[in-house]
């Protein structure tokens, strides 16, 4: 397999045996005979079997390389390359070891201890599965690219014509015949045309909006890919004509092979999304904090499991308690579990998934979840023109007819932007009262036309599509908007279910009997028809200049014929110039009534006139002495909603850059129409071709891209698009890139957000993208950006909520260790709070309504912190209170019989002094200490060993601490409704989902309290009414913090 060639737009590998692999040959700039000599082949005989075998040894098969993706094992390992995940993994392993140790000791809580590590392991496994599944889909773009390749080819070898040769067996130097409908199997030099014309649809590779005419004549060596008129490229399609070609490049050396390499390169350089970067930074910070707190806890409690005596100033007689060491190690693990928001990945995924559903309702189909959030910080949208900013449907926008005098023209504005005949109308149109001149224009546009218009799909709601040349389809739509004269409008017309009623009527009245095919020399197409007068008429359409050159007369509006003079010619050329400078494609219409050679011709091949039609060289003479009747200006019009979307981007601080393969004049006109540029703005410094941009120095490129406002890059190739995206990312921009063709795939892969077109987009573009537009509409991107910003704000809300909850848990455990009191919250309880209890409110915060001015603010910087210093300070204060409240209620139960008038003595538990609670580890040394039995629901707790009162007996105090923690966090979720506002400015009913979620979380807490099996697992007991009053009293006051 040959390696990928340099994509410098000037040269290619020669592909000839005997030549080095590094030799290049610009076949498009050489004469056909020179190419035959270089590739050592003749078009008549083709290659010999020996030649084919030698060249295949050098260049390999004509197929794209299969890049081996990462193995499943490496993908799995990658899922653990995340700070939060690694912390969780360590915590799970340590928890498992401790659970095993407790089980060996016969502890009573071994079931509880094993639940925690198993749940953490389950979280990690699910996270890894989802990650592997997402990344395994990343290489599908390369597979889709291979489907574009042709499967078979018609080849001449050893003087014989071989049909259906597998395309992968082609080698440089092969002679290939192409016909209409064929998919081009390799990059090839056109040697000769068999038909009069050859057109190839190569827009998916080059970005051109129309099929391109090809020739066998050489072109300049330094032209861009669009300028290589004598080359056909692998993966493109022949839409008209047939020819003989010489294979110049195969496999990875073709243009599509270079795209394949660029996609592979781009996929390997994909950056993390802004959110993932922030979460990684947060994880690293969290690691440092956890490490510091765990170390501090151990230092504070070192005296409980390690003691020594000072002898001669040196520590001696060390005493170490393994049991106590293990106990405080468990506290350290509990700290890690408390500090890590285990539910955060699940809540983020849920929020992003909800966002994708909202976007899908707006025709934006998100393929990769993180893209939802990345959209929110998009600063630059690099948009393709054709099909995104425009409809990708040619439409007539101006019709010019002859007036009452030779030098007087009439101009009509035609509305509508699609192939729908009912989309728009002609302004100031004499409906039903068409004069002779307008009737002739309608007749020519309808009959001298090989296209068709129909509805896509099987139902009547489908959109209208063109079958054939887009310009010809647009002319048929024009005919329908023109209507029929009153004398012809009565009576049925067959076919097309009324879609092309007028066109069908004209074809019935004057049926076609012969066609003079379009060719590149005369630049026109003609048809001979049986006219209503009984004569044979010639109807012609084509380039205005060439028709004028062959016209001797003009038809006035009353149908009279006048000899064409200088003033009438100048008037027509002036109208042509005005339309051309507006980047319209202009077609002229003419006819001829006197055709003496065809007076008796009816399509019979034996008729003498038929011989004239067999030779295209006769067409120019037949199409002479024409009568000119009018002209029409066509273009691919902008979508109606795009100008407003461009203005919305400007208001939102998002720059729009148009990158297209189309020509500069057309692209500039569209950009002025949609508002990227002002109507009279000097855009000489804002509009460059791709080649001009690439010729700039790196510094000048960056200066160009840093300009405020919109930019245009025309005649852009895939490598140009990649370079623009890469430089923008280097400048710190968050880039959204749109595209539909194969040529767009590498840039889509490289961009922060790759956006493919759903209707016109190739499978390659869709697979390389992060998001697909179901309606191919630019305004959908703008709506998706607004949704992304809203989602990010909501994500900040639930991240703030979860982080503040975790700060409270850490504060609680830290205070427990610092004060020396028994452990108030165990890891499995913290895990339950982080995963289950906090989950519903955090998810519900994702439903917060968007701010009304969300698209009037500039995009946030991608490096903006999730939590500002002020927000961090605010939640540190709240978290400290949560810690005080949970530890405080634990102490209250042990030391007080009542609190704020709430009686706590009903269960009969013993009271102790705070000094005793803080030194509970010395219980064995206390004199006359005893603990009374107490009740909890149906259970009675007795203590044979009074010191167990601080171990198994703490179950009620633990339940109170857990319940206070849950209640505070529920009320705290209301604080997270707004980052800066209070509950007065953002009342709870602003998000009814949150109120429902709080109810669900309380319901889940009641479930584990009052279902005995679950209560045993979580080490808690039912609470009485008075105890619930205590919980709510302590928790509710947090809302005023």
Automatic annotation (TrEMBL):
Keywords: ATP-binding, Calcium, Calcium transport, Ion transport, Magnesium, Membrane, Metal-binding, Nucleotide-binding, Translocase, Transmembrane, Transmembrane helix, Transport. It comes from Sesamum alatum. One of its GO terms (molecular function) is ATP binding. This is P-type Ca(2+) transporter. It is found in: Membrane. Belongs to the cation transport ATPase (P-type) (TC 3.A.3) family. Type IIA subfamily. Residues 1-16 have a biased composition (Basic and acidic residues). It is an enzyme of class 7 (translocase). Its main location: membrane. The chain crosses the membrane at residues 83-101, 113-133, 286-306, 326-354, 871-894, 989-1011, 1017-1036. Residues 26-100 form the Cation-transporting P-type ATPase N-terminal domain. InterPro entries: ATPase_P-typ_cation-transptr_C (IPR006068), ATPase_P-typ_cation-transptr_N (IPR004014), ATPase_P-typ_cyto_dom_N (IPR023299), ATPase_P-typ_P_site (IPR018303), ATPase_P-typ_TM_dom_sf (IPR023298), ATPase_P-typ_transduc_dom_A_sf (IPR008250), ATPase_P-type_domA (IPR059000), HAD-like_sf (IPR036412). Residues 1-22 are annotated as: Disordered. Its EC number is 7.2.2.10. It comes from the Eukaryota. It is a multi-pass membrane protein. GO terms for cellular component: membrane.
């Amino acid at each position: 397999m040959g390696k990928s060639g340099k994509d410098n737009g000037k040269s290619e590998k020669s592909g000839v045996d005997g030549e080095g692999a590094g030799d290049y040959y610009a076949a498009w700039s050489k004469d056909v005979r020179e190419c035959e000599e270089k590739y050592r082949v003749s078009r008549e005989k083709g290659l010999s079997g020996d030649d084919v075998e030698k060249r295949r040894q050098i260049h390999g098969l004509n197929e794209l390389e299969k890049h081996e993706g990462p193995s499943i094992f490496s993908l799995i390992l990658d899922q653990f390359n995340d700070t939060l995940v690694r912390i969780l993994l360590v915590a799970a392993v340590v928890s498992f070891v401790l659970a095993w140790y407790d089980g060996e000791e016969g502890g009573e809580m071994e079931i509880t201890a094993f639940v925690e590590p198993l749940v953490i392991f389950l979280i990690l496994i699910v996270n890894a599965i989802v990650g592997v599944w997402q990344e395994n889909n990343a290489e599908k773009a390369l597979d889709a690219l291979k489907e574009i390749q042709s499967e078979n080819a018609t080849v001449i070898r050893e003087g014989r014509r071989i049909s259906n040769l597998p395309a992968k067996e082609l080698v440089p130097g092969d002679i290939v015949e192409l016909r209409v409908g064929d998919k081009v199997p390799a990059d090839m030099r056109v040697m000769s045309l068999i038909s009069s014309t050859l057109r190839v649809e190569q827009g998916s590779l080059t970005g051109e909006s129309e099929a391109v005419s090809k020739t066998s004549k050489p072109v300049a060596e330094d032209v861009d890919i669009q300028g290589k008129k004598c080359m056909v490229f692998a993966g493109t399609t022949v839409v008209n004509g047939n020819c003989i070609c010489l294979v110049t490049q195969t496999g990875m050396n073709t243009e599509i092979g270079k795209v394949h390499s660029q996609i592979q390169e781009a996929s390997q350089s994909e950056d993390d999304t802004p959110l993932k970067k922030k979460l990684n930074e947060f994880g690293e910070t969290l690691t440092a904090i956890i490490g510091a707190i765990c170390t501090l806890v151990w230092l504070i409690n070192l005296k409980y499991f390690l003691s020594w005596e000072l002898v001669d100033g040196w520590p001696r007689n060390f005493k170490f308690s393994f049991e106590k060491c293990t106990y405080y190690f468990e506290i350290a693990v509990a700290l890690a579990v408390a500090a890590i928001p285990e539910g955060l990945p699940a809540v983020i995924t849920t929020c992003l998934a909800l966002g994708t559903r909202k976007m899908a309702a707006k025709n934006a189909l998100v393929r990769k979840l993180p893209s939802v959030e990345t959209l929110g910080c998009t600063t630059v949208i690099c948009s393709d023109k054709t099909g995104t900013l425009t409809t990708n449907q040619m439409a007539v926008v101006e019709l010019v007819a002859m007036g009452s005098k030779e030098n007087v023209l009439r101009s009509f504005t035609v509305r509508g932007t699609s192939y729908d005949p009912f989309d728009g109308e002609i302004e100031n149109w004499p409906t039903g009262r068409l004069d002779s001149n307008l009737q002739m224009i309608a007749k020519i546009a309808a009959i001298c036309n090989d296209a068709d218009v129909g509805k896509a799909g099987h139902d009547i709601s489908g959109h209208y599509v063109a079958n054939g040349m887009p310009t010809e389809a647009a002319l048929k739509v024009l005919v329908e908007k023109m209507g029929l004269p009153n004398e012809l409008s009565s009576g049925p017309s067959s076919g097309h279910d009324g879609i092309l009623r007028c066109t069908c009527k004209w074809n019935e009245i004057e049926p076609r009997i012969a066609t003079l095919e379009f060719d590149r020399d005369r630049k026109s197409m003609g048809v001979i028809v049986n006219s209503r007068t009984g004569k044979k008429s010639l109807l012609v359409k084509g380039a205005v200049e060439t028709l004028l050159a062959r016209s001797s007369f003009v038809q006035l509006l009353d149908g009279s014929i006048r000899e064409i003079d200088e003033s009438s010619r100048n008037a027509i050329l002036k109208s042509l110039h005005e339309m051309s400078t507006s980047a319209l494609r202009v077609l002229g219409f003419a006819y001829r009534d006197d055709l003496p050679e065809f007076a008796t011709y009816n399509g019979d091949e034996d008729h003498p006139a038929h011989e004239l039609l067999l030779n295209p060289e006769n067409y120019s003479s037949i199409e002479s002495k024409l009568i000119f009747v009018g002209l029409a200006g066509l273009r691919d019009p902008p979508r109606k909603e795009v100008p407003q979307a461009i203005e919305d981007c400007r208001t939102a601080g998002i720059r729009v850059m148009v990158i297209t393969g189309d020509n500069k004049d057309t692209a500039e006109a569209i950009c002025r129409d949609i508002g990227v540029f002002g109507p009279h703005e000097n855009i000489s410094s804002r509009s460059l071709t791709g080649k001009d941009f690439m010729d700039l120095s790196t510094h000048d490129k960056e200066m160009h891209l840093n300009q405020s406002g919109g930019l245009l890059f025309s005649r852009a190739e895939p490598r140009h698009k990649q370079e623009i995206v890469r430089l923008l990312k280097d400048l710190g921009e968050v880039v959204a890139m749109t595209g539909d063709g194969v040529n767009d795939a590498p840039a889509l892969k490289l961009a922060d957000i790759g956006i493919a077109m759903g209707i016109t987009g190739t499978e390659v573009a869709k697979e390389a993208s992060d998001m697909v537009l179901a309606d191919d509409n630019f305004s959908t991107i703008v709506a998706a950006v607004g949704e992304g910003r809203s989602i990010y704000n909501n994500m900040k809300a639930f991240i703030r909520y979860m982080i503040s909850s975790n700060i409270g848990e850490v504060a609680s455990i830290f205070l427990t260790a610092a004060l020396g009191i028994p452990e108030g919250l165990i890891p499995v309880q913290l895990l339950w709070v982080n995963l289950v209890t906090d989950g519903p409110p955090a998810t519900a915060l994702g439903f917060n309504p968007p701010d009304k001015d969300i698209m009037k603010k500039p995009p946030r910087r991608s490096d903006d912190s999730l939590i500002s210093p002020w927000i961090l300070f605010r939640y540190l204060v709240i978290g400290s209170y949560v810690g005080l409240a949970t530890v405080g209620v634990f102490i209250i139960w042990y030391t007080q019989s009542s609190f704020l008038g709430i009686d706590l003595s009903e269960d009969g538990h013993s009271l102790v002094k705070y000094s005793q609670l803080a030194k509970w580890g010395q219980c064995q040394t206390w004199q006359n200490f005893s603990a009374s039995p107490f009740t909890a629901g149906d259970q009675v707790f007795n203590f044979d060993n009074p010191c167990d009162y601080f171990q198994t007996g703490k179950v009620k105090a633990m339940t109170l601490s857990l319940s206070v923690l849950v209640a505070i966090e529920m009320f705290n979720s209301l604080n997270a409704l707004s980052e800066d506002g209070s509950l007065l400015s953002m009342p709870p009913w602003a998000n009814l989902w949150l109120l429902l979620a709080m109810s669900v979380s309380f319901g889940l807490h009641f479930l584990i309290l009052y279902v005995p099996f679950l209560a045993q697992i979580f080490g808690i007991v039912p609470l009485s009414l008075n105890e619930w009053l205590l919980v709510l009293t302590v928790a509710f006051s947090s809302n005023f913090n």
